Amino acid sequence: MTPSTAPERKPSGTDPRPDLLSLIPAEVEAALAGHFERRKQPGYRADQVATWLYESGVTSFAEMTNLPLEERTALAEAFRLEAPEAETISRSSDGTVKHLWRMGDGELVESVLIPTSDRLTLCISSQAGCAMGCTFCATGWGGFGRQLTAGEITAQFRNSRRWAEENDYGPINNVVFMGMGEPLANRKAVHPTLTILNQGFGLGARRITVSTVGVVPGIRELAARPEQFGLALSLHSPDAELRSELIPLEKRHPLPELIDAIEEFVQAGGRRVTFEYTMIRGINDAESLAPALAALARRVHAFVNLIPFNPIPYQDWKPSVPARVEYFRRTLDEAGVSVAVREPRGRDIDAACGQLRANALVQIEGPDTVGSRPRARATVASPTGDGAGATG
Ligand code: SF4
User: Fold this and answer.
1) Where are the alpha helices (DSSP H) in 68-224?
2) Ligand 1 contacts CB of residue 139 (under 6 A)
Protein backbone atom coordinates (compact mmCIF):
# COMPACT_ATOMS: atom_id res chain seq x y z
CA MET A 1 0.00 0.00 0.00
CA THR A 2 1.24 3.46 -0.77
CA PRO A 3 -0.16 6.05 1.63
CA SER A 4 -2.07 8.86 0.00
CA THR A 5 -0.22 12.15 -0.13
CA ALA A 6 -0.92 15.85 -0.01
CA PRO A 7 -1.67 17.30 -3.42
CA GLU A 8 1.07 19.91 -3.33
CA ARG A 9 4.38 18.28 -2.60
CA LYS A 10 7.42 20.48 -2.12
CA PRO A 11 10.62 19.91 -0.15
CA SER A 12 9.66 20.86 3.41
CA GLY A 13 12.42 23.48 3.69
CA THR A 14 11.08 25.44 0.71
CA ASP A 15 7.41 25.45 1.70
CA PRO A 16 6.43 28.55 3.71
CA ARG A 17 3.22 26.98 5.05
CA PRO A 18 3.46 25.73 8.65
CA ASP A 19 3.33 21.94 8.90
CA LEU A 20 0.53 21.08 11.32
CA LEU A 21 2.16 17.72 12.03
CA SER A 22 5.30 19.48 13.32
CA LEU A 23 3.37 21.54 15.88
CA ILE A 24 2.50 20.34 19.36
CA PRO A 25 -1.26 20.07 20.00
CA ALA A 26 -1.47 23.41 21.87
CA GLU A 27 0.17 25.16 18.91
CA VAL A 28 -2.15 23.38 16.47
CA GLU A 29 -5.14 24.52 18.50
CA ALA A 30 -3.94 28.13 18.56
CA ALA A 31 -3.05 28.17 14.85
CA LEU A 32 -6.41 26.70 13.84
CA ALA A 33 -8.40 28.94 16.20
CA GLY A 34 -6.81 32.02 14.62
CA HIS A 35 -7.30 30.67 11.10
CA PHE A 36 -10.99 29.92 11.54
CA GLU A 37 -11.64 33.15 13.42
CA ARG A 38 -10.20 35.12 10.51
CA ARG A 39 -12.47 33.13 8.22
CA LYS A 40 -15.47 33.74 10.49
CA GLN A 41 -16.00 30.03 10.97
CA PRO A 42 -17.41 28.45 14.15
CA GLY A 43 -14.93 27.44 16.85
CA TYR A 44 -15.67 23.72 16.49
CA ARG A 45 -13.93 23.66 13.11
CA ALA A 46 -10.58 23.52 14.93
CA ASP A 47 -11.72 20.45 16.87
CA GLN A 48 -12.85 18.81 13.63
CA VAL A 49 -9.40 19.30 12.10
CA ALA A 50 -7.65 18.04 15.25
CA THR A 51 -9.79 14.90 15.19
CA TRP A 52 -8.86 14.24 11.57
CA LEU A 53 -5.23 14.92 12.34
CA TYR A 54 -4.77 12.70 15.37
CA GLU A 55 -7.60 10.17 15.39
CA SER A 56 -8.07 9.53 11.68
CA GLY A 57 -4.44 10.15 10.74
CA VAL A 58 -5.27 11.75 7.39
CA THR A 59 -2.41 12.85 5.15
CA SER A 60 -4.22 15.69 3.37
CA PHE A 61 -6.87 18.32 4.09
CA ALA A 62 -8.89 16.93 1.19
CA GLU A 63 -9.70 13.90 3.35
CA MET A 64 -11.39 16.06 6.03
CA THR A 65 -14.76 15.46 4.49
CA ASN A 66 -16.97 16.93 7.21
CA LEU A 67 -15.54 20.37 6.45
CA PRO A 68 -16.95 22.44 3.59
CA LEU A 69 -14.89 22.23 0.42
CA GLU A 70 -13.89 25.90 0.59
CA GLU A 71 -12.59 25.38 4.16
CA ARG A 72 -10.49 22.40 3.07
CA THR A 73 -9.08 24.53 0.26
CA ALA A 74 -8.36 27.41 2.64
CA LEU A 75 -6.63 25.05 5.08
CA ALA A 76 -4.40 23.68 2.32
CA GLU A 77 -3.47 27.24 1.36
CA ALA A 78 -2.59 28.19 4.93
CA PHE A 79 -1.01 24.98 6.23
CA ARG A 80 0.55 21.75 5.06
CA LEU A 81 0.66 18.21 6.38
CA GLU A 82 3.93 16.32 6.16
CA ALA A 83 3.29 13.29 3.99
CA PRO A 84 6.27 11.12 3.11
CA GLU A 85 5.65 8.51 0.45
CA ALA A 86 6.43 4.82 0.85
CA GLU A 87 9.35 4.11 -1.47
CA THR A 88 9.30 0.41 -0.58
CA ILE A 89 7.39 -1.80 1.85
CA SER A 90 9.13 -5.05 2.82
CA ARG A 91 7.36 -7.79 4.78
CA SER A 92 9.43 -10.38 6.57
CA SER A 93 8.42 -14.00 7.01
CA ASP A 94 8.37 -13.27 10.78
CA GLY A 95 5.77 -10.50 10.32
CA THR A 96 8.16 -7.56 10.60
CA VAL A 97 7.35 -4.80 8.13
CA LYS A 98 9.86 -2.22 7.02
CA HIS A 99 8.88 1.01 5.29
CA LEU A 100 11.42 3.06 3.41
CA TRP A 101 9.92 6.57 3.31
CA ARG A 102 10.88 9.18 0.75
CA MET A 103 10.75 12.68 2.20
CA GLY A 104 9.79 15.77 0.19
CA ASP A 105 13.42 16.49 -0.70
CA GLY A 106 14.17 12.88 -1.61
CA GLU A 107 15.88 11.86 1.64
CA LEU A 108 15.21 8.24 2.56
CA VAL A 109 14.18 7.21 6.07
CA GLU A 110 13.18 3.85 7.51
CA SER A 111 10.64 2.72 10.07
CA VAL A 112 9.90 -0.82 11.16
CA LEU A 113 6.71 -2.41 12.53
CA ILE A 114 7.51 -5.31 14.84
CA PRO A 115 4.58 -7.50 15.85
CA THR A 116 4.84 -9.89 18.79
CA SER A 117 2.15 -12.07 20.34
CA ASP A 118 0.75 -9.30 22.53
CA ARG A 119 1.83 -5.99 21.02
CA LEU A 120 2.84 -4.03 17.97
CA THR A 121 5.96 -1.90 18.25
CA LEU A 122 6.99 0.78 15.81
CA CYS A 123 10.65 1.69 15.49
CA ILE A 124 11.07 5.18 14.00
CA SER A 125 13.94 7.29 12.68
CA SER A 126 14.90 10.72 13.98
CA GLN A 127 17.52 11.66 11.38
CA ALA A 128 18.12 10.87 7.71
CA GLY A 129 21.26 8.84 8.22
CA CYS A 130 23.47 9.42 11.23
CA ALA A 131 26.77 11.14 11.91
CA MET A 132 27.72 9.11 14.97
CA GLY A 133 29.70 6.58 12.96
CA CYS A 134 29.12 3.54 15.19
CA THR A 135 31.12 0.77 13.60
CA PHE A 136 28.47 -1.95 13.92
CA CYS A 137 25.66 0.05 12.30
CA ALA A 138 24.53 0.30 8.68
CA THR A 139 23.13 3.77 9.32
CA GLY A 140 26.49 4.93 10.64
CA TRP A 141 28.13 3.50 7.55
CA GLY A 142 25.70 5.41 5.33
CA GLY A 143 26.67 8.76 6.92
CA PHE A 144 24.57 11.79 7.80
CA GLY A 145 21.91 13.21 5.50
CA ARG A 146 20.05 15.80 7.58
CA GLN A 147 17.91 16.32 10.64
CA LEU A 148 14.27 15.29 10.35
CA THR A 149 11.53 17.71 11.39
CA ALA A 150 9.03 16.80 14.10
CA GLY A 151 6.45 16.35 11.33
CA GLU A 152 8.69 13.96 9.41
CA ILE A 153 9.23 11.85 12.53
CA THR A 154 5.56 11.96 13.51
CA ALA A 155 4.53 11.11 9.95
CA GLN A 156 6.31 7.76 10.25
CA PHE A 157 3.99 6.97 13.15
CA ARG A 158 0.84 8.30 11.49
CA ASN A 159 1.51 6.51 8.18
CA SER A 160 2.55 3.27 9.88
CA ARG A 161 -0.53 3.29 12.11
CA ARG A 162 -2.70 3.70 9.04
CA TRP A 163 -0.87 0.91 7.22
CA ALA A 164 -1.19 -1.37 10.28
CA GLU A 165 -4.93 -0.72 10.54
CA GLU A 166 -5.49 -1.39 6.84
CA ASN A 167 -3.43 -4.59 6.94
CA ASP A 168 -4.89 -6.13 10.12
CA TYR A 169 -1.81 -5.55 12.24
CA GLY A 170 -3.90 -3.82 14.91
CA PRO A 171 -3.03 -0.72 16.91
CA ILE A 172 0.56 0.37 17.58
CA ASN A 173 1.21 -0.12 21.31
CA ASN A 174 4.80 1.07 21.59
CA VAL A 175 7.08 3.48 19.80
CA VAL A 176 10.85 3.25 20.05
CA PHE A 177 13.26 5.83 18.68
CA MET A 178 15.69 3.14 17.57
CA GLY A 179 15.63 3.63 13.82
CA MET A 180 18.05 5.74 11.90
CA GLY A 181 19.81 8.54 13.70
CA GLU A 182 20.69 9.56 17.23
CA PRO A 183 17.46 11.07 18.64
CA LEU A 184 19.20 13.12 21.30
CA ALA A 185 21.32 14.78 18.59
CA ASN A 186 18.06 16.11 17.11
CA ARG A 187 16.35 17.30 20.25
CA LYS A 188 14.86 20.34 18.54
CA ALA A 189 12.54 17.94 16.67
CA VAL A 190 12.43 14.97 19.05
CA HIS A 191 11.10 16.90 22.05
CA PRO A 192 8.02 18.20 20.18
CA THR A 193 7.54 14.77 18.59
CA LEU A 194 7.36 13.20 22.05
CA THR A 195 4.69 15.74 22.99
CA ILE A 196 2.75 15.20 19.76
CA LEU A 197 2.73 11.40 20.10
CA ASN A 198 1.78 11.62 23.77
CA GLN A 199 -0.73 14.49 23.84
CA GLY A 200 -1.93 14.43 20.24
CA PHE A 201 -2.00 10.76 19.27
CA GLY A 202 -2.65 9.63 22.86
CA LEU A 203 0.27 7.23 23.20
CA GLY A 204 1.24 6.81 26.86
CA ALA A 205 4.66 8.23 27.76
CA ARG A 206 5.69 4.87 29.21
CA ARG A 207 5.02 3.37 25.79
CA ILE A 208 7.56 5.63 24.11
CA THR A 209 11.27 4.90 24.44
CA VAL A 210 14.12 7.10 23.31
CA SER A 211 17.32 5.28 22.49
CA THR A 212 20.73 6.92 22.67
CA VAL A 213 24.38 5.99 22.29
CA GLY A 214 25.11 8.36 25.15
CA VAL A 215 24.33 12.03 24.49
CA VAL A 216 24.60 13.12 28.11
CA PRO A 217 23.02 16.60 27.79
CA GLY A 218 20.07 14.99 26.02
CA ILE A 219 19.63 12.40 28.77
CA ARG A 220 19.54 15.22 31.32
CA GLU A 221 16.95 17.14 29.27
CA LEU A 222 14.79 14.03 29.01
CA ALA A 223 15.08 13.50 32.76
CA ALA A 224 13.83 17.06 33.31
CA ARG A 225 10.58 16.39 31.43
CA PRO A 226 7.60 15.57 33.62
CA GLU A 227 6.42 12.65 31.46
CA GLN A 228 7.69 9.13 32.09
CA PHE A 229 9.31 8.47 28.71
CA GLY A 230 11.56 5.44 28.65
CA LEU A 231 15.27 5.51 27.90
CA ALA A 232 17.39 2.88 26.21
CA LEU A 233 21.16 3.14 26.23
CA SER A 234 23.10 1.49 23.44
CA LEU A 235 25.85 0.24 25.71
CA HIS A 236 27.48 -2.57 23.71
CA SER A 237 30.48 -2.73 26.03
CA PRO A 238 31.08 -2.05 29.74
CA ASP A 239 34.73 -1.37 28.91
CA ALA A 240 35.39 2.26 27.91
CA GLU A 241 38.27 1.50 25.56
CA LEU A 242 36.39 -1.17 23.65
CA ARG A 243 33.23 0.93 23.68
CA SER A 244 35.03 3.87 22.11
CA GLU A 245 36.04 1.61 19.22
CA LEU A 246 32.40 0.71 18.65
CA ILE A 247 30.85 4.10 19.46
CA PRO A 248 33.04 7.17 18.77
CA LEU A 249 30.83 9.30 21.05
CA GLU A 250 32.28 7.40 24.03
CA LYS A 251 35.34 9.65 23.75
CA ARG A 252 33.16 12.73 24.18
CA HIS A 253 30.92 11.36 26.94
CA PRO A 254 32.89 8.60 28.69
CA LEU A 255 31.12 5.80 30.55
CA PRO A 256 31.50 7.22 34.10
CA GLU A 257 29.83 10.50 33.04
CA LEU A 258 27.22 8.60 31.07
CA ILE A 259 26.28 6.25 33.90
CA ASP A 260 26.03 9.24 36.28
CA ALA A 261 23.54 10.83 33.88
CA ILE A 262 21.57 7.58 33.63
CA GLU A 263 21.46 7.36 37.40
CA GLU A 264 20.06 10.90 37.55
CA PHE A 265 17.46 9.95 34.92
CA VAL A 266 16.34 6.95 36.96
CA GLN A 267 16.23 8.92 40.21
CA ALA A 268 14.36 11.83 38.60
CA GLY A 269 11.20 9.84 38.10
CA GLY A 270 11.66 6.22 39.04
CA ARG A 271 11.87 5.39 35.37
CA ARG A 272 13.22 2.20 33.91
CA VAL A 273 16.30 2.20 31.74
CA THR A 274 17.21 -0.49 29.24
CA PHE A 275 20.73 -1.36 28.18
CA GLU A 276 21.00 -2.58 24.61
CA TYR A 277 23.92 -4.93 24.10
CA THR A 278 24.55 -6.12 20.56
CA MET A 279 26.65 -9.27 20.80
CA ILE A 280 29.35 -9.47 18.12
CA ARG A 281 31.45 -12.61 17.92
CA GLY A 282 35.01 -12.06 19.08
CA ILE A 283 34.48 -8.30 19.45
CA ASN A 284 32.47 -7.57 22.60
CA ASP A 285 31.45 -11.02 23.85
CA ALA A 286 34.49 -12.01 25.95
CA GLU A 287 33.34 -13.86 29.08
CA SER A 288 35.25 -11.36 31.21
CA LEU A 289 32.88 -8.56 30.08
CA ALA A 290 29.73 -10.20 31.44
CA PRO A 291 30.33 -9.46 35.18
CA ALA A 292 31.27 -5.85 34.35
CA LEU A 293 28.07 -5.48 32.36
CA ALA A 294 26.10 -6.94 35.30
CA ALA A 295 27.71 -4.44 37.69
CA LEU A 296 26.77 -1.44 35.53
CA ALA A 297 23.21 -2.72 35.09
CA ARG A 298 22.79 -3.32 38.82
CA ARG A 299 23.97 0.18 39.63
CA VAL A 300 21.15 1.84 37.64
CA HIS A 301 18.64 -1.06 37.89
CA ALA A 302 18.72 -1.42 34.12
CA PHE A 303 16.97 -4.10 32.15
CA VAL A 304 19.42 -5.66 29.68
CA ASN A 305 18.55 -6.70 26.15
CA LEU A 306 21.14 -9.02 24.62
CA ILE A 307 20.86 -8.83 20.84
CA PRO A 308 22.86 -11.17 18.63
CA PHE A 309 24.44 -8.98 15.93
CA ASN A 310 22.36 -8.65 12.77
CA PRO A 311 24.92 -8.88 9.93
CA ILE A 312 25.09 -5.80 7.74
CA PRO A 313 26.56 -5.29 4.29
CA TYR A 314 30.16 -4.14 3.93
CA GLN A 315 31.10 -5.50 7.35
CA ASP A 316 32.17 -9.10 8.02
CA TRP A 317 31.31 -9.33 11.73
CA LYS A 318 29.17 -12.22 12.89
CA PRO A 319 26.68 -12.70 15.73
CA SER A 320 27.93 -14.29 18.95
CA VAL A 321 27.41 -18.04 19.14
CA PRO A 322 24.30 -19.04 21.12
CA ALA A 323 26.37 -20.56 23.96
CA ARG A 324 28.11 -17.22 24.55
CA VAL A 325 24.82 -15.33 24.49
CA GLU A 326 23.49 -17.81 27.04
CA TYR A 327 26.61 -17.31 29.19
CA PHE A 328 25.95 -13.56 29.29
CA ARG A 329 22.26 -14.11 30.03
CA ARG A 330 23.00 -16.51 32.88
CA THR A 331 25.70 -14.27 34.38
CA LEU A 332 23.34 -11.30 34.40
CA ASP A 333 20.46 -13.35 35.74
CA GLU A 334 22.57 -14.77 38.57
CA ALA A 335 23.67 -11.22 39.45
CA GLY A 336 20.00 -10.27 39.89
CA VAL A 337 19.75 -8.29 36.64
CA SER A 338 16.58 -8.53 34.53
CA VAL A 339 17.69 -9.71 31.12
CA ALA A 340 16.21 -10.91 27.83
CA VAL A 341 17.71 -12.27 24.65
CA ARG A 342 16.17 -10.46 21.71
CA GLU A 343 16.30 -12.24 18.42
CA PRO A 344 16.93 -9.87 15.52
CA ARG A 345 13.73 -9.48 13.54
CA GLY A 346 13.23 -9.23 9.83
CA ARG A 347 16.63 -10.54 8.77
CA ASP A 348 15.21 -11.45 5.36
CA ILE A 349 14.17 -7.83 4.69
CA ASP A 350 17.37 -6.02 5.81
CA ALA A 351 15.64 -4.80 8.96
CA ALA A 352 18.88 -3.85 10.70
CA CYS A 353 18.93 -0.12 11.40
CA GLY A 354 19.79 1.81 8.24
CA GLN A 355 20.28 -1.20 6.07
CA LEU A 356 17.64 -0.44 3.45
CA ARG A 357 18.82 3.14 3.15
CA ALA A 358 22.45 2.04 2.93
CA ASN A 359 21.56 -0.36 0.16
CA ALA A 360 19.51 2.29 -1.65
CA LEU A 361 22.32 4.86 -1.35
CA VAL A 362 24.81 2.39 -2.79
CA GLN A 363 22.48 1.88 -5.74
CA ILE A 364 22.17 5.64 -6.22
CA GLU A 365 25.65 6.91 -5.35
CA GLY A 366 28.00 3.91 -5.34
CA PRO A 367 29.76 2.49 -2.26
CA ASP A 368 32.76 4.85 -2.33
CA THR A 369 30.60 7.98 -2.32
CA VAL A 370 28.38 6.67 0.48
CA GLY A 371 31.42 5.68 2.51
CA SER A 372 32.66 9.28 2.42
CA ARG A 373 29.44 10.88 3.77
CA PRO A 374 29.82 12.97 6.95
CA ARG A 375 30.46 11.13 10.18
CA ALA A 376 31.06 12.20 13.73
CA ARG A 377 34.36 11.72 15.41
CA ALA A 378 33.41 12.03 19.05
CA THR A 379 31.43 15.21 18.40
CA VAL A 380 27.84 16.00 19.18
CA ALA A 381 25.10 18.45 18.31
CA SER A 382 24.61 21.82 19.90
CA PRO A 383 22.80 21.83 23.27
CA THR A 384 19.49 22.48 21.58
CA GLY A 385 20.09 19.69 19.13
CA ASP A 386 19.49 21.91 16.15
CA GLY A 387 21.60 22.62 13.13
CA ALA A 388 23.41 19.83 11.38
CA GLY A 389 23.58 17.64 14.46
CA ALA A 390 26.53 15.45 15.12
CA THR A 391 28.91 16.20 12.37
CA GLY A 392 32.53 15.44 12.26
S1 SF4 B 1 23.87 2.98 16.26
FE2 SF4 B 1 22.50 4.77 16.32
S3 SF4 B 1 23.88 6.46 16.84
FE4 SF4 B 1 25.20 4.78 16.12
S5 SF4 B 1 25.48 5.16 13.92
FE6 SF4 B 1 23.71 3.77 14.16
S7 SF4 B 1 21.94 5.14 14.18
FE8 SF4 B 1 23.74 6.40 14.61
Assistant:
1) 69-78, 138-142, 150-166, 187-195, 216-224
2) yes
Catalytic annotation, pick one of 130, 134, 137, 353: 353
The rounded distance, in Å, linking the Cα atoms of 193 and 152 is 9
User: Mind listing the pLDDT tens digit for each residue in 125-142?
Assistant: 999 999 999 988 888 777
Give 288: exposed, middle or buried? Use CB within 10 Å, 0-12, 13-18, 19+: exposed
What H or E segment, with its residue span, contains residue 109?
strand 108-115
In degrees, rounded to 5, the angle at the alpha carbon of residue 22 between the alpha carbons of residues 17 and 27 is 85
Active site residue 123: no
8-state DSSP, 149: P
**Model pLDDT for residues 174-218, shown as the tens digit of each residue:** 999 999 999 999 999 999 999 999 999 999 999 999 999 999 999
pTM of the model: 0.87
Centre of ligand 1 to C-alpha 130, Å, is 6
Question: Residue 295 CB: number of other CB atoms within 10 A?
Answer: 12
CA angle 61/63/66 to nearest 5° reads 95
Structural domains in the chain plus CATH codes: 19-78 (1.10.150.530), 85-371 (3.20.20.70)
Distance CA 229, CA 199 (A): 13
Ligand 1 center to residue 133 CA distance, Å?
Answer: 7
Alpha-carbon dihedral of residues 302, 307, 311, 315, nearest 10 degrees? 40
Distance from the alpha carbon of residue 183 to the mean position of ligand 1, in angstroms? 9
The residues, any chain, with a CB within 8 Å of residue 4's CB and separated by 6 or more, are 59, 60, 63, 83
Q: Which of 188, 200, 190 is nearest to 229 (CA)?
A: 190
- Reply yes or no on whether 353 is catalytic: yes
- Choose, from 82, 107, 110, 276, the residue flagged as catalytic: 110
Residue 181: CB within 6 Å of ligand 1?
A: yes
